[in-house]
Write a structure and sequence with these properties.
single chain; 6-hairpin_glycosidase_sf; mainly alpha; hydrolase activity; 15 helices
Length: 359
């Protein structure tokens, strides 16, 4: 097993190990020096350190903490710096997902699985993903029996879809990938407006929520990242991803944020960082992957990151303007933060760093 190192003399070792695991190439500049020279890396380290030192409800294997730890491991891969929190969190939770017999495949309960899968790339021990793998196997059986409506709110595209894709690809499981396609098409029929390229939060909503659409764009990016180019379902995911990206490009505010209510700019008109960070991740990943035109989207990404890193992020690492837990558009203030907002900021930073000279 790979051990976590301290931020200092061990930074280089963490970065080298992460790069070896992921097949990445490293600059000849030592990671600690590279982090000092890269403003994106410095912002990521500040945000991660502040949350683990001052955040609330850090112990649970919830979707909020799962989202943070996905970002926290993106921080390790990007900067070579570890705050030593993800592995103990996962161990304390025995690598288990949340569960409820009344809702066996509730998407939010699967969100921690993505963090465990990321952790598995550092610690490739079977118990790390055993519960994730079993939950998905059980869900595939249920979907094959005709139960395709589990993804009835847009968050599911990020909470559950990436883990299903990764297990399906890792295990070479056509049934898992087929089940994912059925679940996605059911959600698309109920929630996606193909004419404008945006998702409603749920069937009862008439608003297009920035965080909800951020979840969808991020989830699709994560699926496209792992799905083989020859998979017959890939074109439909890519079609939605590209349509969403174009719409979100058009809707970005002048200050770089996206409004919490995407089509009603007068509704809760202040900055909001969680939706903005998720959208930034998706667009930046698309540029890095060569799926989105850099000439069109690079400025959008840069404006969004500037808003996040200079307006939402304080000098002490506190990330504000994170809309509290909700099921649709709502207000946020400079004093609002949350694990999922910080996690979204960190995955956005990982992709922005890849676009930034010196990082």
């Amino acid at each position: 097993m790979i051990g976590w190192t301290s931020a200092g003399q061990g930074r280089g070792r963490v970065a080298l190990l992460a790069a070896a695991v992921l097949g990445a190439s490293l600059s000849t500049v030592p990671p600690a020096v590279a982090a000092e020279q890269c403003t994106v890396a410095k912002a990521m380290i500040a945000a991660g350190d502040h949350w683990v030192a001052n955040g609330t409800d850090l112990a649970a294997n919830s979707w909020q903490n799962g989202t943070f730890h996905v970002g926290n491991l993106a921080l390790v891969r990007t900067t070579g710096v570890s705050n030593h929190k993800t592995l103990p969190w996962a161990q304390d939770n025995k690598y288990l997902l949340q569960s409820d017999p009344a809702r066996p495949f509730f998407p939010a309960f699967q969100a921690a699985g993505e963090a465990y899968l990321d952790l598995y790339s550092f610690h490739p021990d079977a118990p790390v993903i055993a519960d994730v793998r079993q939950r998905i196997a059980d869900e595939v059986v249920s979907v094959e029996r005709g139960n395709t409506g589990y993804w009835d709110h847009v968050e599911a595209l990020n909470m559950a879809m990436p883990s299903l894709a990764r297990i399906g690809v890792m295990d070479g499981s056509e049934p898992a990938l087929a089940a994912m396609g059925k679940l996605f098409r059911s959600a698309e029929r109920k929630l996606y407006d193909g004419g404008i390229g945006l998702w409603r939060r749920d069937a009862g909503s008439d608003a297009y929520w920035s965080r909800g659409n951020g979840w969808a764009l991020a989830g699709l990016a994560k699926v496209l990242q792992v799905l083989p180019s020859g998979d017959p379902r890939r074109p439909e995911y890519l079609r939605v991803f590209e349509k969403m990206a174009n719409t979100l490009w058009f809707l970005q505010r002048r200050d770089g944020f996206w409004n919490t209510d995407l089509l009603r700019p007068w509704n809760h008109g202040g900055p909001e960082s969680s939706g903005t960070a998720l959208i930034t991740f998706g667009l930046a990943w698309g540029v890095n992957a060569g799926l989105l035109d850099a000439g069109k989207y690079r400025r959008t990404v840069d404006k969004a990151w500037e808003a996040l890193s200079t307006k939402a992020l304080r000098a002490d690492g506190f990330l504000g303007y994170v809309q509290p837990v909700a099921s649709g558009p709502g207000p946020s203030s400079a004093g609002d933060t949350g694990a999922y907002g910080v996690g979204a900021f960190l995955i956005a930073g990982q992709q922005v760093a890849r676009l930034t000279p010196g990082c």
